[in-house]
Fold:
Amino acid sequence: MNWIPSPLRIPGFRAYWLARWTSTIGQLAMVIIIGWQVYDIARETMPLKEAAFRLGIIGLVQFVPLFVLVPISGYAADHFDRRWVGRATIALELGCAVALGWYAWTGTTTLTALFTVAALLGVARAFSGPAFQALAPNLVPREILPTAIALSSISWQSGSIIGPALGGYLYAVSPATPYAVSALLFGVSFLATLAIPPIPRPEPDRSGGFWRKTTEGIRYVRTNRLVLGAISLDLFAVLLGGATAMLPVFARDVLHAGAGELGNLRAAPAVGATLMAAWFTFRPLKTNVGVKMLAAVAIFGLSTIVFGVSTSMPLSLASLAILGAADMYSVNVRQSLIQLHTPDDKRGRVGAVSSLFISASNELGEAESGLLAALIGPVVAVVAGGIGAVAVVAIWAWKFPELRLAKSFDHHEIDRQSSSTRDNKEPVT
Structure:
Protein backbone atom coordinates (compact mmCIF):
# COMPACT_ATOMS: atom_id res chain seq x y z
CA MET A 1 0.00 0.00 0.00
CA ASN A 2 3.06 2.28 -0.06
CA TRP A 3 2.08 3.46 -3.55
CA ILE A 4 -1.03 5.16 -2.10
CA PRO A 5 -0.37 8.89 -1.50
CA SER A 6 0.13 9.40 2.22
CA PRO A 7 -2.92 11.66 2.89
CA LEU A 8 -5.27 8.94 1.59
CA ARG A 9 -3.96 6.57 4.25
CA ILE A 10 -5.73 8.77 6.82
CA PRO A 11 -9.42 7.68 7.22
CA GLY A 12 -10.69 11.18 7.93
CA PHE A 13 -9.06 12.59 4.80
CA ARG A 14 -10.45 9.72 2.70
CA ALA A 15 -13.97 10.58 3.85
CA TYR A 16 -13.30 14.26 3.17
CA TRP A 17 -12.02 13.43 -0.33
CA LEU A 18 -15.08 11.30 -1.15
CA ALA A 19 -17.43 14.03 0.10
CA ARG A 20 -15.80 16.67 -2.10
CA TRP A 21 -15.66 14.37 -5.11
CA THR A 22 -19.31 13.33 -5.08
CA SER A 23 -20.60 16.83 -4.29
CA THR A 24 -18.49 18.28 -7.11
CA ILE A 25 -19.90 15.82 -9.63
CA GLY A 26 -23.46 16.60 -8.50
CA GLN A 27 -22.92 20.35 -8.46
CA LEU A 28 -21.34 20.59 -11.91
CA ALA A 29 -23.81 18.19 -13.47
CA MET A 30 -26.45 20.68 -12.32
CA VAL A 31 -24.58 23.83 -13.31
CA ILE A 32 -23.93 22.72 -16.88
CA ILE A 33 -27.63 21.95 -17.38
CA ILE A 34 -28.73 25.20 -15.73
CA GLY A 35 -26.55 27.07 -18.24
CA TRP A 36 -27.88 25.03 -21.15
CA GLN A 37 -31.51 25.53 -20.10
CA VAL A 38 -31.05 29.28 -19.59
CA TYR A 39 -29.47 29.70 -23.01
CA ASP A 40 -31.97 27.35 -24.67
CA ILE A 41 -35.00 29.13 -23.18
CA ALA A 42 -33.54 32.56 -23.96
CA ARG A 43 -32.73 31.64 -27.58
CA GLU A 44 -36.38 30.79 -28.21
CA THR A 45 -37.27 34.48 -27.98
CA MET A 46 -33.97 36.41 -28.21
CA PRO A 47 -31.10 36.88 -30.67
CA LEU A 48 -27.70 35.33 -29.92
CA LYS A 49 -26.10 38.33 -28.19
CA GLU A 50 -29.03 38.92 -25.84
CA ALA A 51 -29.20 35.22 -24.97
CA ALA A 52 -25.44 35.21 -24.28
CA PHE A 53 -25.96 38.10 -21.87
CA ARG A 54 -28.65 36.11 -20.00
CA LEU A 55 -26.12 33.30 -19.74
CA GLY A 56 -23.63 35.66 -18.14
CA ILE A 57 -26.24 36.73 -15.57
CA ILE A 58 -26.06 33.24 -14.04
CA GLY A 59 -22.57 34.06 -12.81
CA LEU A 60 -23.72 37.35 -11.34
CA VAL A 61 -26.60 35.85 -9.33
CA GLN A 62 -24.19 33.26 -7.89
CA PHE A 63 -21.62 35.91 -6.98
CA VAL A 64 -23.91 38.33 -5.13
CA PRO A 65 -24.71 35.94 -2.22
CA LEU A 66 -21.03 35.11 -1.80
CA PHE A 67 -20.08 38.79 -1.78
CA VAL A 68 -22.70 39.60 0.84
CA LEU A 69 -22.01 36.56 3.03
CA VAL A 70 -18.21 36.39 2.92
CA PRO A 71 -17.64 37.92 6.39
CA ILE A 72 -20.23 35.61 7.97
CA SER A 73 -19.11 32.46 6.14
CA GLY A 74 -15.48 32.95 7.16
CA TYR A 75 -16.51 33.58 10.77
CA ALA A 76 -18.63 30.41 10.72
CA ALA A 77 -15.72 28.30 9.44
CA ASP A 78 -13.45 29.55 12.26
CA HIS A 79 -15.97 29.52 15.13
CA PHE A 80 -18.17 26.48 14.45
CA ASP A 81 -17.55 22.84 13.63
CA ARG A 82 -16.31 22.95 10.03
CA ARG A 83 -17.78 19.53 9.35
CA TRP A 84 -21.31 20.69 10.15
CA VAL A 85 -20.93 23.87 8.12
CA GLY A 86 -20.01 21.66 5.16
CA ARG A 87 -22.91 19.29 5.83
CA ALA A 88 -25.40 22.17 5.88
CA THR A 89 -24.20 23.40 2.47
CA ILE A 90 -24.49 19.92 0.96
CA ALA A 91 -28.03 19.66 2.31
CA LEU A 92 -28.90 22.98 0.62
CA GLU A 93 -27.49 21.74 -2.70
CA LEU A 94 -29.53 18.57 -2.33
CA GLY A 95 -32.66 20.68 -1.97
CA CYS A 96 -31.74 22.68 -5.10
CA ALA A 97 -31.32 19.47 -7.11
CA VAL A 98 -34.72 18.16 -5.96
CA ALA A 99 -36.42 21.46 -6.83
CA LEU A 100 -34.99 21.68 -10.35
CA GLY A 101 -35.67 17.99 -10.90
CA TRP A 102 -39.32 18.58 -10.03
CA TYR A 103 -39.58 21.58 -12.37
CA ALA A 104 -37.98 19.57 -15.19
CA TRP A 105 -40.23 16.55 -14.53
CA THR A 106 -43.37 18.67 -14.64
CA GLY A 107 -42.19 20.79 -17.58
CA THR A 108 -42.48 24.04 -15.61
CA THR A 109 -38.85 25.21 -15.72
CA THR A 110 -38.56 28.98 -16.12
CA LEU A 111 -35.71 31.48 -16.21
CA THR A 112 -36.84 32.77 -12.82
CA ALA A 113 -36.59 29.28 -11.29
CA LEU A 114 -33.15 28.72 -12.80
CA PHE A 115 -31.81 32.06 -11.59
CA THR A 116 -33.28 31.52 -8.09
CA VAL A 117 -31.62 28.12 -7.73
CA ALA A 118 -28.36 29.57 -9.08
CA ALA A 119 -28.49 32.18 -6.29
CA LEU A 120 -29.08 29.44 -3.67
CA LEU A 121 -26.11 27.53 -5.03
CA GLY A 122 -24.14 30.74 -4.51
CA VAL A 123 -25.20 30.75 -0.85
CA ALA A 124 -24.05 27.14 -0.50
CA ARG A 125 -20.70 27.90 -2.08
CA ALA A 126 -20.23 30.95 0.16
CA PHE A 127 -20.16 28.68 3.22
CA SER A 128 -18.75 25.45 1.77
CA GLY A 129 -15.58 27.02 0.32
CA PRO A 130 -14.12 28.40 3.57
CA ALA A 131 -15.25 25.41 5.63
CA PHE A 132 -13.83 22.71 3.37
CA GLN A 133 -10.64 24.64 2.58
CA ALA A 134 -9.95 25.16 6.28
CA LEU A 135 -10.86 21.56 7.14
CA ALA A 136 -8.20 19.88 4.98
CA PRO A 137 -5.19 21.16 7.00
CA ASN A 138 -6.85 19.81 10.18
CA LEU A 139 -6.87 16.27 8.77
CA VAL A 140 -3.23 15.80 7.71
CA PRO A 141 0.23 16.60 9.10
CA ARG A 142 1.60 19.92 7.91
CA GLU A 143 4.52 18.41 5.97
CA ILE A 144 2.18 16.56 3.57
CA LEU A 145 -0.33 19.40 3.18
CA PRO A 146 0.73 20.30 -0.41
CA THR A 147 0.12 16.67 -1.42
CA ALA A 148 -3.26 16.75 0.34
CA ILE A 149 -4.15 19.95 -1.52
CA ALA A 150 -3.20 18.28 -4.81
CA LEU A 151 -5.41 15.30 -3.93
CA SER A 152 -8.24 17.62 -2.95
CA SER A 153 -7.82 19.31 -6.32
CA ILE A 154 -8.07 15.91 -7.99
CA SER A 155 -11.43 15.36 -6.28
CA TRP A 156 -12.61 18.70 -7.66
CA GLN A 157 -11.09 18.37 -11.10
CA SER A 158 -12.04 14.74 -11.70
CA GLY A 159 -15.54 15.68 -10.57
CA SER A 160 -15.32 18.53 -13.07
CA ILE A 161 -14.66 15.97 -15.79
CA ILE A 162 -17.40 13.57 -14.80
CA GLY A 163 -20.03 16.13 -13.73
CA PRO A 164 -20.50 18.16 -16.94
CA ALA A 165 -20.24 15.11 -19.22
CA LEU A 166 -22.64 13.20 -16.98
CA GLY A 167 -25.07 16.13 -16.90
CA GLY A 168 -24.99 16.57 -20.68
CA TYR A 169 -25.59 12.92 -21.49
CA LEU A 170 -28.21 12.44 -18.77
CA TYR A 171 -30.07 15.49 -20.08
CA ALA A 172 -30.34 13.65 -23.40
CA VAL A 173 -32.25 10.93 -21.51
CA SER A 174 -34.66 13.41 -19.94
CA PRO A 175 -34.40 16.94 -18.50
CA ALA A 176 -35.09 15.66 -14.98
CA THR A 177 -32.50 12.85 -14.96
CA PRO A 178 -29.33 14.91 -14.29
CA TYR A 179 -31.00 16.59 -11.32
CA ALA A 180 -32.14 13.26 -9.88
CA VAL A 181 -28.63 11.83 -10.14
CA SER A 182 -27.19 14.99 -8.61
CA ALA A 183 -29.53 14.63 -5.64
CA LEU A 184 -28.30 11.06 -5.14
CA LEU A 185 -24.67 12.20 -5.26
CA PHE A 186 -25.32 14.93 -2.70
CA GLY A 187 -26.80 12.27 -0.43
CA VAL A 188 -23.62 10.19 -0.71
CA SER A 189 -21.53 13.29 -0.02
CA PHE A 190 -23.52 14.08 3.12
CA LEU A 191 -23.02 10.54 4.43
CA ALA A 192 -19.28 10.80 3.73
CA THR A 193 -19.01 13.96 5.83
CA LEU A 194 -20.57 12.05 8.73
CA ALA A 195 -17.53 9.74 8.61
CA ILE A 196 -15.07 12.62 9.19
CA PRO A 197 -14.03 12.36 12.86
CA PRO A 198 -14.14 15.31 15.28
CA ILE A 199 -11.15 17.64 14.91
CA PRO A 200 -9.45 18.76 18.13
CA ARG A 201 -9.08 22.52 17.82
CA PRO A 202 -8.20 25.27 20.27
CA GLU A 203 -11.05 27.41 21.55
CA PRO A 204 -11.44 30.32 19.11
CA ASP A 205 -10.65 33.81 20.34
CA ARG A 206 -14.02 35.52 20.78
CA SER A 207 -12.65 38.83 22.04
CA GLY A 208 -12.77 42.01 20.02
CA GLY A 209 -16.38 42.01 18.89
CA PHE A 210 -18.22 40.27 16.06
CA TRP A 211 -17.47 42.81 13.35
CA ARG A 212 -13.75 42.88 14.11
CA LYS A 213 -13.57 39.08 14.05
CA THR A 214 -15.49 38.77 10.80
CA THR A 215 -13.23 41.26 9.02
CA GLU A 216 -9.97 39.91 10.42
CA GLY A 217 -9.43 37.72 7.36
CA ILE A 218 -9.57 40.79 5.10
CA ARG A 219 -7.03 42.62 7.29
CA TYR A 220 -4.72 39.61 7.30
CA VAL A 221 -4.78 39.36 3.51
CA ARG A 222 -4.07 43.10 3.18
CA THR A 223 -0.98 42.87 5.40
CA ASN A 224 0.48 39.70 3.85
CA ARG A 225 1.74 40.67 0.41
CA LEU A 226 2.41 37.09 -0.68
CA VAL A 227 -1.13 35.98 0.12
CA LEU A 228 -2.64 39.13 -1.41
CA GLY A 229 -0.57 38.79 -4.57
CA ALA A 230 -1.44 35.11 -5.03
CA ILE A 231 -5.16 35.65 -4.52
CA SER A 232 -5.44 38.77 -6.65
CA LEU A 233 -3.40 37.23 -9.51
CA ASP A 234 -6.04 34.53 -9.87
CA LEU A 235 -8.83 37.08 -9.56
CA PHE A 236 -7.79 39.27 -12.46
CA ALA A 237 -6.36 36.56 -14.72
CA VAL A 238 -9.51 34.42 -14.60
CA LEU A 239 -11.82 37.46 -14.56
CA LEU A 240 -10.38 38.47 -17.91
CA GLY A 241 -9.40 35.10 -19.36
CA GLY A 242 -12.25 32.84 -18.27
CA ALA A 243 -13.96 31.30 -21.30
CA THR A 244 -16.21 28.71 -19.67
CA ALA A 245 -19.24 31.00 -19.44
CA MET A 246 -19.33 31.19 -23.24
CA LEU A 247 -19.12 27.42 -23.79
CA PRO A 248 -22.85 27.06 -24.62
CA VAL A 249 -22.43 29.83 -27.21
CA PHE A 250 -19.35 28.23 -28.75
CA ALA A 251 -20.93 24.76 -28.67
CA ARG A 252 -24.15 25.80 -30.36
CA ASP A 253 -23.22 28.70 -32.64
CA VAL A 254 -19.46 28.40 -33.34
CA LEU A 255 -18.78 24.66 -33.28
CA HIS A 256 -22.39 23.71 -34.14
CA ALA A 257 -22.61 21.00 -31.46
CA GLY A 258 -25.25 19.81 -28.98
CA ALA A 259 -25.60 19.24 -25.24
CA GLY A 260 -23.39 16.16 -25.24
CA GLU A 261 -20.52 17.97 -26.96
CA LEU A 262 -21.04 20.88 -24.57
CA GLY A 263 -20.41 18.45 -21.71
CA ASN A 264 -17.16 17.40 -23.39
CA LEU A 265 -16.07 21.02 -23.79
CA ARG A 266 -16.90 21.77 -20.17
CA ALA A 267 -14.99 18.68 -19.03
CA ALA A 268 -11.88 19.32 -21.14
CA PRO A 269 -10.25 21.83 -18.75
CA ALA A 270 -10.81 19.40 -15.90
CA VAL A 271 -9.11 16.60 -17.84
CA GLY A 272 -5.94 18.66 -18.10
CA ALA A 273 -6.27 19.83 -14.50
CA THR A 274 -6.75 16.30 -13.15
CA LEU A 275 -3.69 14.99 -14.97
CA MET A 276 -1.66 17.88 -13.57
CA ALA A 277 -2.98 17.34 -10.03
CA ALA A 278 -2.21 13.61 -10.27
CA TRP A 279 1.34 14.51 -11.29
CA PHE A 280 1.65 16.72 -8.19
CA THR A 281 0.62 13.89 -5.84
CA PHE A 282 3.66 11.86 -6.92
CA ARG A 283 6.02 14.69 -7.93
CA PRO A 284 5.24 17.70 -5.72
CA LEU A 285 6.82 21.04 -6.59
CA LYS A 286 9.98 21.82 -4.67
CA THR A 287 11.76 24.82 -6.17
CA ASN A 288 10.96 28.24 -7.69
CA VAL A 289 7.25 27.76 -7.06
CA GLY A 290 6.41 31.46 -7.50
CA VAL A 291 7.99 31.86 -10.94
CA LYS A 292 6.37 28.63 -12.09
CA MET A 293 2.97 29.87 -10.92
CA LEU A 294 3.34 33.06 -12.96
CA ALA A 295 4.38 31.06 -16.04
CA ALA A 296 1.36 28.78 -15.64
CA VAL A 297 -1.03 31.74 -15.57
CA ALA A 298 0.57 33.09 -18.76
CA ILE A 299 -0.01 29.71 -20.46
CA PHE A 300 -3.61 29.88 -19.24
CA GLY A 301 -4.07 33.17 -21.09
CA LEU A 302 -2.43 31.93 -24.28
CA SER A 303 -4.61 28.80 -24.31
CA THR A 304 -7.68 31.01 -23.94
CA ILE A 305 -6.66 32.92 -27.06
CA VAL A 306 -6.29 29.67 -29.03
CA PHE A 307 -9.72 28.49 -27.91
CA GLY A 308 -11.28 31.80 -28.91
CA VAL A 309 -10.05 31.63 -32.51
CA SER A 310 -10.66 27.88 -32.98
CA THR A 311 -13.46 26.57 -35.18
CA SER A 312 -12.33 22.94 -34.81
CA MET A 313 -13.70 20.73 -32.04
CA PRO A 314 -10.39 18.80 -31.53
CA LEU A 315 -8.37 22.04 -31.31
CA SER A 316 -10.93 23.57 -28.95
CA LEU A 317 -10.81 20.51 -26.68
CA ALA A 318 -6.99 20.48 -26.70
CA SER A 319 -6.69 24.20 -25.89
CA LEU A 320 -9.20 23.85 -23.05
CA ALA A 321 -7.28 20.86 -21.66
CA ILE A 322 -4.01 22.83 -21.68
CA LEU A 323 -5.86 25.77 -20.12
CA GLY A 324 -7.07 23.49 -17.32
CA ALA A 325 -3.62 22.01 -16.71
CA ALA A 326 -2.07 25.48 -16.46
CA ASP A 327 -4.82 26.64 -14.12
CA MET A 328 -4.31 23.59 -11.90
CA TYR A 329 -0.59 24.30 -11.75
CA SER A 330 -1.18 27.83 -10.50
CA VAL A 331 -4.00 26.73 -8.16
CA ASN A 332 -1.78 24.15 -6.45
CA VAL A 333 0.96 26.69 -5.82
CA ARG A 334 -1.46 29.40 -4.71
CA GLN A 335 -3.49 27.24 -2.33
CA SER A 336 -0.39 25.67 -0.79
CA LEU A 337 1.18 29.09 -0.17
CA ILE A 338 -2.04 30.50 1.28
CA GLN A 339 -2.73 27.54 3.59
CA LEU A 340 0.86 27.30 4.82
CA HIS A 341 1.18 31.05 5.38
CA THR A 342 -2.12 31.35 7.29
CA PRO A 343 -2.59 30.46 11.00
CA ASP A 344 -5.29 27.83 11.60
CA ASP A 345 -7.47 30.18 13.65
CA LYS A 346 -7.72 32.48 10.61
CA ARG A 347 -7.92 29.88 7.82
CA GLY A 348 -11.71 30.04 7.60
CA ARG A 349 -11.81 33.81 7.24
CA VAL A 350 -8.84 33.96 4.88
CA GLY A 351 -10.46 31.09 2.96
CA ALA A 352 -13.65 33.17 2.73
CA VAL A 353 -11.68 36.06 1.23
CA SER A 354 -10.02 33.63 -1.17
CA SER A 355 -13.42 32.18 -2.09
CA LEU A 356 -14.72 35.70 -2.72
CA PHE A 357 -11.84 36.42 -5.06
CA ILE A 358 -12.26 33.07 -6.81
CA SER A 359 -15.99 33.61 -7.18
CA ALA A 360 -15.40 37.14 -8.41
CA SER A 361 -13.07 35.77 -11.06
CA ASN A 362 -15.46 32.98 -12.04
CA GLU A 363 -18.98 34.36 -11.60
CA LEU A 364 -18.22 38.02 -12.30
CA GLY A 365 -16.03 36.78 -15.13
CA GLU A 366 -19.09 35.04 -16.55
CA ALA A 367 -21.11 38.24 -16.29
CA GLU A 368 -18.23 40.21 -17.86
CA SER A 369 -17.94 37.65 -20.65
CA GLY A 370 -21.68 37.79 -21.30
CA LEU A 371 -21.72 41.59 -21.39
CA LEU A 372 -18.62 41.80 -23.58
CA ALA A 373 -19.98 39.12 -25.91
CA ALA A 374 -23.19 41.13 -26.26
CA LEU A 375 -21.16 44.19 -27.23
CA ILE A 376 -18.41 42.82 -29.49
CA GLY A 377 -19.28 39.16 -30.04
CA PRO A 378 -18.23 36.00 -28.16
CA VAL A 379 -15.10 35.21 -30.19
CA VAL A 380 -13.54 38.67 -29.86
CA ALA A 381 -14.51 38.76 -26.18
CA VAL A 382 -12.71 35.49 -25.39
CA VAL A 383 -9.58 36.42 -27.36
CA ALA A 384 -9.40 39.84 -25.70
CA GLY A 385 -9.77 38.17 -22.31
CA GLY A 386 -6.84 35.84 -22.99
CA ILE A 387 -4.64 38.79 -23.97
CA GLY A 388 -5.69 40.53 -20.75
CA ALA A 389 -4.72 37.48 -18.65
CA VAL A 390 -1.20 37.49 -20.13
CA ALA A 391 -0.91 41.20 -19.38
CA VAL A 392 -1.95 40.59 -15.76
CA VAL A 393 0.96 38.18 -15.30
CA ALA A 394 3.47 40.82 -16.40
CA ILE A 395 1.94 43.45 -14.12
CA TRP A 396 1.77 41.17 -11.06
CA ALA A 397 5.34 39.93 -11.55
CA TRP A 398 6.41 43.57 -11.24
CA LYS A 399 3.91 44.67 -8.58
CA PHE A 400 4.39 41.66 -6.26
CA PRO A 401 8.05 40.56 -6.28
CA GLU A 402 7.15 38.29 -3.35
CA LEU A 403 5.52 35.96 -5.89
CA ARG A 404 8.69 35.72 -7.97
CA LEU A 405 10.78 35.17 -4.85
CA ALA A 406 8.64 32.35 -3.39
CA LYS A 407 11.03 29.39 -3.60
CA SER A 408 9.48 26.34 -1.92
CA PHE A 409 6.82 24.87 0.40
CA ASP A 410 9.35 24.05 3.14
CA HIS A 411 7.49 24.82 6.35
CA HIS A 412 10.62 26.00 8.21
CA GLU A 413 11.27 28.63 5.54
CA ILE A 414 7.59 29.60 5.56
CA ASP A 415 7.62 30.00 9.35
CA ARG A 416 10.52 32.43 9.02
CA GLN A 417 8.73 34.33 6.23
CA SER A 418 5.49 34.46 8.22
CA SER A 419 7.32 35.75 11.27
CA SER A 420 8.88 38.47 9.14
CA THR A 421 5.46 39.33 7.70
CA ARG A 422 3.88 39.58 11.16
CA ASP A 423 6.65 41.95 12.20
CA ASN A 424 5.71 44.27 9.31
CA LYS A 425 2.11 45.35 9.77
CA GLU A 426 2.10 47.95 6.99
CA PRO A 427 -1.03 47.20 4.94
CA VAL A 428 -0.96 46.99 1.18
CA THR A 429 -2.79 49.83 -0.51
Observations:
- The CA atoms of residues 71 and 214 lie 5 Å apart.
